[in-house]
Amino acid sequence: MTPVRTANLGLVQKINRSIVLNVIRDKGPLSRADVSRRTKLTRSTVSSIVSYLTKKNLVRETGLSSSGVGRRGILLELNPKAYYIVGIDLGTLNTIAAVVDLEGKIVERVEHPTNGEKNRDDVIERVKAAIHEVISASNLNLQKIAGIGLAVPGLVDSKKGMILFIPNFGWKDTPLREILEEEFHTPIFIDNNANAMALSEAQFGIGRGVKNINREIYRGETECTGEIGHTTVDYNGPKCSCGNNGCLEVMAAGPAIARRAVKAIREGRKTVITELVEDNLNQITAAVVARAANQGDRLAREIMEKTGEYLGTGIANIINLFNPQMVIIGGGVAQAGNLIFDPLKRIMKKRAFSVPAKVVKIATPSLGRDCTVIGAASLVLKEIFKSPKVVSS
Questions:
Q1: What is the CATH topology of the domain spanning 84-205+370-386?
Q2: Which of 143, 248, 262, 285 has the greatest count of CB atoms below 10 A from its CB?
Q3: How far apart (Å, rounded) are the C-alpha atoms in residues 103 and 265?
Q4: Could you tell me the pTM of the whole model?
Q5: C-alpha Rg value of the chain to the nearest Å
Q6: Could you give the C-alpha distances from 68 to 50, 71, 167, in angstroms and in order?
Q7: Tell me: the pLDDT tens digits for 339-385?
Q8: Which residue, among 315, 311, 318, has the nearest Cα to 338 in the 3D structure?
Q9: In angstroms, what CA-CA distances link 231 with 151, 257, 312, 330, 382?
Q10: Contact at 8 Å (CB) between 135 and 110?
């Protein structure tokens, strides 16, 4: 970002503060002279801005530089405890709420069943309760909360804070931002859970430094991009919650793995899966199938192989469309390891163009199962560091 020295003086000041804050955040610890060189702002301007940011507790001094000629400079770094963000991962099965600092580190976390089968108002009340609970557990007041970010499993108009459609819940046109702003009186940001996960890994995880589109999420004309789970990989497949048949989600997600296992057992296939769940087929999950596969169970290995093939087909489509440097696969499916990834890579190489397929890296989230809730918080962090809203008052 190039510093601005013309136009409205107040706006220039806010923009330059944001530039300095971002440089210290991304490259710190830095001396004032380092900041001046990187931003091309004068040393007096940098000194004035640093003084302001220090008073706001956003930047702190952290010792002396160890190199250079002459007097050693005082090093500056972001103060990650200046503000906090609440992130919410609204999952189909569980809702995770976390208080996250400015470096994306979780300082408090709670998790409860979502109960998505209940009506919309009940789920929203559970989200509100989770936010209140995690803030209370962190011993922070709302003045220290810079905003609340939510990651949801569906289509979102992020500008309006409107949930357009959550297939697994049956929600349509839900003004979630408006509902939560009435409760918490703080900025609310909402996005799709896959976008949030990608954002967290790009900012704090394995995706740092990976090329993307101007460091932004590509949203499309109506903000409905990124629904890779609802691309068709088998047009003869079962009906998905979105209404289509054979979507990647209904063929390869955790519930699909469990469903195939149950179907095979009811058709008479012998497997150790039944022993692992003590003949209670309702207890079969993707994790149980993966466990059986690791024990050498033939049926479980067949299911994992097929799941990997479906994922490989979907990822090949992504590669041919976008030529990405990295594809990150999250969720419970990724925990199956090479049982999934070996057939995935084989099919991906078979179906994708060879040149982009050779360079793409297939990875799992380095932030673990909390990557989505950290991503929800990152929705707020992205806005804080994109504009001078927090530091301009």
A1: Nucleotidyltransferase; domain 5 (3.30.420)
A2: 248
A3: 47
A4: 0.82
A5: 24
A6: 21, 8, 59
A7: 899 999 999 999 999 999 999 999 988 988 899 999 999 999 988 88
A8: 311
A9: 20, 18, 13, 17, 28
A10: no
